[in-house]
Design goal:
It is built from 15 helices and twelve strands. The chain has a four-stranded parallel β-sheet with strand order 2-1-3-4, with helices on both faces. A four-stranded parallel β-sheet has the order 6-5-7-8, sandwiched between helices. Strands 10-9-11-12 form a four-stranded parallel β-sheet, with helices on both faces. Helix 4 links the parallel strand 3 and strand 4. Helix 3 packs parallel to helix 4 and helix 12 packs parallel to helix 13. Bound molecules: 1,3-dihydroxyacetonephosphate and iron/sulfur cluster.
């Protein structure tokens, strides 16, 4: 029996579903019950009523959010070491330090943070709704972490003072894209539409025709009447874009834009995780309770 057939059989036997991020390997995307961006995956995890087990094929903070939002489910991460380096850049101590400096300023945290950090913020956001979240707050200044590029993007769109915490938190994968890469592709495809993820640098954001989360990019491509798209986010999204839009052309601006953490998940590891029911992700309830409030506030805005 092929590995994907074995996984499907286990899924039925154990009443499990597979949620996968847009950056997962093609063979994982092809077997997933749902593929999406951070907010889409969290929403899907909240809505899940039937399944007993959720296999979360992504990185640590996303699986943690699923546990926080749906504490009755068993949430499995196929690879324990799949950890987002940007999420590790903001510790609770660092948040507390900034709160002492700005006691009256609300703290907005990107979901790419550990549960312990989420427990110390006022509201969460994703790249899909960061502008809306900051706009909704009755404050002209916010503390925003951990991605300083997303912070700059939010500042540009809202006009508010957005203080990045830590000062220069970043995603190592999105940092790989340079405006020169786009210029080079444009020489070959002058009419191509440039799609940029807001985790990219401000210089990259300035050359964009469209800025959005991974799923927003997928939606935009479907609606946009154009032949060629230049993509500046992790390469895993190319599989979905090509599969959903066989007549359109996609060029990754920098070919080695790979998130090694997302790619730690393989079909073999996913199979073992489901078979042995590991690695179970847990969040201590006092932390989960506080983090849940910050996530739910975000969902209230988006409902
Ligand atoms: P989104 O899929 O929400 O755009 O997030 C991108 C990302 O880098 C997740 O780690
Ligand atoms: Fe973290 Fe960047 Fe990888 Fe997303 S792409 S998991 S932000 S390192």
């Amino acid at each position: 029996m092929k590995l994907n057939e074995k996984i499907n059989r286990l899924k039925r036997e154990k009443n499990a579903i597979i949620l996968a991020h847009n950056y997962q390997r093609p063979e994982i995307q092809d077997i997933a019950d749902y593929i999406g961006d951070s907010i889409g995956l969290s929403r899907r995890a909240v809505e899940e009523e039937e399944a007993k087990i959720i296999v979360f094929s992504a990185v640590d903070f996303m699986a943690e959010s699923a546990v926080i939002l749906n504490p009755d489910k068993k949430v499995l991460l196929p690879t324990l070491g799949a950890r987002c380096p940007m999420a590790q850049m903001l510790t609770v101590d660092e948040i507390k330090r900034w709160k002492v400096l700005y006691p009256l300023v609300p703290v907005v945290l990107y979901v790419n943070t550990l549960a312990s950090a989420k427990a110390y913020c006022d509201i969460c956001c994703t790249s899909a709704n960061a502008v809306e979240v900051v706009d909704s707050l009755d404050a002209e200044t916010v503390l925003f972490g951990p991605d300083h590029n997303l912070a700059e993007y939010v500042h540009g769109r809202t006009g508010k003072t957005v203080i990045p915490i830590p000062e220069r938190g970043f995603c190592p994968t999105h940092l790989l894209f340079q405006p020169e890469d786009v210029q080079l592709v444009k020489m070959k495809h002058p009419d191509a539409i440039v799609m940029v993820h807001p985790e990219c640098s401000v210089e990259m954001q300035n050359v964009a025709d469209f800025i959005g989360s991974t799923s927003q990019m997928c939606r935009y491509v479907k609606e946009k009447n154009a032949e060629t798209f230049i993509v500046t986010t992790e390469e895993g999204i190319m599989h979905r874009l090509r599969k959903e839009n066989p007549k359109k052309k996609f060029v990754l601006a920098y070919e080695d834009a790979v998130c090694p953490n997302m790619k730690l998940n393989t079909l073999e590891r996913l199979y073992t995780a489901l078979k042995e029911e590991k690695h179970v992700i847990t969040v201590p309830e006092p932390v989960a309770k506080r983090a849940r409030k910050s996530l739910e506030k975000m969902f209230e805005l988006n409902s």
